[in-house]
Amino acid sequence: MIGAVAVLLLLLATEPTKPSEAALCGLGGLCGQSVPQEDKVAPLTRDLESAEVRKIYHAVSDLASLGEAALPAIEKRAQAAQGRTRDYLNLAADEIRSARLTTGVPPLQRLSMKSSDRNVVELLGDLRAKTGVALSLENLMGEEKLPEVPVDVRDVTMLEAFDAICRAGNVTVTMENGQFMLYQGDYQEMPRFFYDHYFFRLGNFVLLRTVDFRKPAVQSFKLQMEMLWDPAAAPCKFNPPVVVEALDDKGKNLIPPPPPPKKEPPKPVEPKPPGEAEEVEAESTSFLQLLPPSPAAEKLTVLRGYSTIGLPRTKVSLSFAEEPKKGERKEAAPPEKPQDPAAEPAPSPLDGMQRKSGDFTVKIVKVESGLFRITCEVSSATLKVEDIGKMPFLASVTLKGAEPTRSYVSLWSMKDTVAEVMISFQPLHLKEILVKAGDDRPVPPAPVEKIELSIVTAVQERKIPFEFRDVKIK
Amino acid sequence: MTIVTALLFALVQGEPPAPPLEPRVAAYALQLRDEATRERARDRLVHLGKPALACLEKLEIDPAILGSIRQEVVFNEGLGASYGPPRTFSFDGADESLGVLLSKLESGAGMTFQKNSLDLSQKLSVRLDDASFWEALDEVCRKAAIWYYPATDPLYLNGGMASIKPRAYYGPVMIVMDRLIQQRKVNFDKIESDYLIRLMCVWERHVAPLGPTGKVHLTAVTDDKGVSLIPAQRPAVPLRPPLQVRVAGQAVDITGLLSPSSDARKLARVEGTLELEFPARIDEVRVEIQGENPSATREIDGAVVELRSFAPQSTWGAAAEFSIRFKDPKEVTGFRIGATDVEFVAPGDNRRPGWIGSTSKDNDKGTFTFTAHWRNNGGRQDLPKEIRLRIPRGSVIKNVPFCYRDVELK
Lengths: 474, 410
Description:
The complex is a heterodimer.
Chain A: H1 2-14, H2 19-28, H3 34-47, H4 53-65, H5 71-80, H6 83-99, E1 110-119, H7 120-131, E2 148-157, H8 158-168, E3 171-176, E4 179-184, E5 192-195, E6 198-211, E7 218-229, E8 237-238, E9 242-248, E10 285-290, E11 299-321, E12 354-357, E13 360-368, E14 373-380, H9 385-389, E15 393-399, E16 403-414, E17 419-427, E18 448-472
Antiparallel strand pairs in A: 1-2, 3-4, 5-6, 6-7, 7-10, 8-11, 9-11, 11-18, 12-13, 13-14, 14-17, 15-16, 15-18, 16-17
Chain B: H1 2-13, H2 21-31, H3 35-56, H4 63-78, E1 88-97, H5 98-109, E2 113-116, E3 123-132, H6 133-144, E4 146-148, E5 155-159, E6 167-170, E7 173-186, E8 191-203, E9 211-223, E10 245-246, E11 249-257, E12 266-278, E13 281-288, E14 296-300, E15 303-313, E16 317-326, E17 337-338, E18 342-346, E19 350-353, E20 355-362, E21 367-375, E22 386-393, E23 396-408
Parallel strand pairs in B: 2-5, 10-17
Antiparallel strand pairs in B: 1-3, 4-5, 6-7, 7-8, 8-11, 9-12, 12-23, 13-22, 14-15, 15-16, 16-21, 18-19, 18-22, 20-21
Helix pairs in contact in B: 1-5, 2-3, 3-4, 5-6
């Protein structure tokens, strides 16, 4: 007996902790230590029954990070479980299955921050240094001295820390074109939910009762919900959120009944190729349509569901950078002269550069550093221009001196055979001190050094859960 | 065949001669004494105009009511051709086919209905006495289960169920209570509540207002629990900028009201007046069309009207582009043009209203530009030889009363 315990302890001590190692064990079947996996799954499963939402979803996240090796144990427990616990276990299993099919999404890290003597700009600067999150702090840099704000967060996701800092420093966060925008003041206390690289917040709810004298009065209850994300894990596509549980404090179920089946026979649906997601049907801000709560209800005790997003599964990436001429000796660059803002900027050496990868050809039409945009033409040997236009694009733009930027790509126009896309970027000024320059002269734009454009050729769907408890409605 | 004969017979017969004025006025004067009939009687007396006023002054009626009628008659006279009494209809309750009844309404009001899926041969018994066009149309539609949306030109009559939206009639104007919307918005930092009553104001074809201003003066909004929905301080509602085209009917939202009691089943009374804007005067301009690229300039008081172009558009019609330059640029701000302001005159005095395709205004230069389209009847037809414009100038506000009782909230 003692020997068995000793072996078990040894196995536990040697149990791989990193998801990649866990995946290797699961795939190769070399470890085969189902007992230790079960032991890891069991306490986390108990956490799923917690009354604390944050604890529950940390447990889901931790279960998912156990990787493929833990999948049989999680599936087995899901079969035996009921209600919410079963949903959470299925979610963790889904997370494990979809993790191997996405590309370019960084693993989640948790962090801790404690400070009482730094201002909000310094704190956000620390956060981006720790996590690499693409934040532009330009809007927050005023001439007046910012107050020091206390922050103490432990074992939180980047977004939880980010929100805590913004709350302490009274900074409003919005998301535009997949990038965070920060504004001084007006931080609003809205119900929030954090999960992985994503967070949801409820904007408002509207209870509407309409009498139009044509049919019985209609009541509707709509909740506005916004999804925000770490730009490093930006979704390519959104599907409308699905609510799986909504109850008010009087016990009324607020989920609308399914619509009656249509009389017309359903049209045959063409099977989609594996990995191809549904068409874009929603945006990051959506409305949850529910039944109106009981008249005496004062809060929603639970509002739970998920939003399905599309993440890159496969992509074709093309890099553009100035190539050093052969035989040319690299000499020390002469000191730069201050650039006249009114002067015509010199053409970029990347202008006209063309790259081919697989079926795709991308040409840099024009780099306009002063306007922070790059025009590209994308064509394909096999796809029509309309199909290229439907594909998600990702871009990474690096400025001179390896200065990073945040960027987004939008479809600009479609010509005969080429889709014209526009890359817009904003320097992050990571290497500069976090103080605004004293003079009002605009900073001259830095030349673009490197562009990487990715064409997402297939997306992997992933369910991102949300859960709010005790949402006051009166 | 029977329907066609009946229609022809009705048209040949023409409208019956109007009953003598004095007994009508006397009958309405009597109705002024009864609260249930007072509002309608006053409406009719006002719209019988000056001749009725002379008769009324000979009768013994409340001087305050007489004074108010006199005041409104004079006011209405001042609106000129933009306003007029309602077209009235009387039916004696004898069985009549739907087709005949509708054609009487069409010829009386000078408009054509678009009739969709109607059994025009069905017999109806309609009894009406001196009813306005809208009252008469609603009664026929109620009996024949016809639904129509009142703010289209032409009116589309559809078989089905008659609308039960509450209606208020006043002279040639009808104000329909289109919907009631109770909204409660919780922003998690503040709560916004609003109760909205949406009215739709329409008028007979011979009446040509600029449109409702959007302002409503409420005297009573109460639910059946006796609670008033008018707050002590009703927030000022920013007015919508006026449309550049005068259209057949427009919605007016009454916002900023309190919500009815939670157990209220009806709005007991909704009463007030709605501001309807009329032109202070109409300037008429006639432009003869000559040559292939006609252009012309006409000067009127305080403005210059220019026909910039008139060009055929394939086989179906032609388009005329006009520009009106006001000497006082402020005048362009509230200027509106409507289809009834443009009349194309083809050879043989064949007159046809235009429809407004596009408008634009330059507030700095005080210029209003619009395109009016002429569409022929189909087939080969000569182009118009003349365009007549009615340019509405200035603004006069007429307060149109409305009153709804026992509006169901279900």
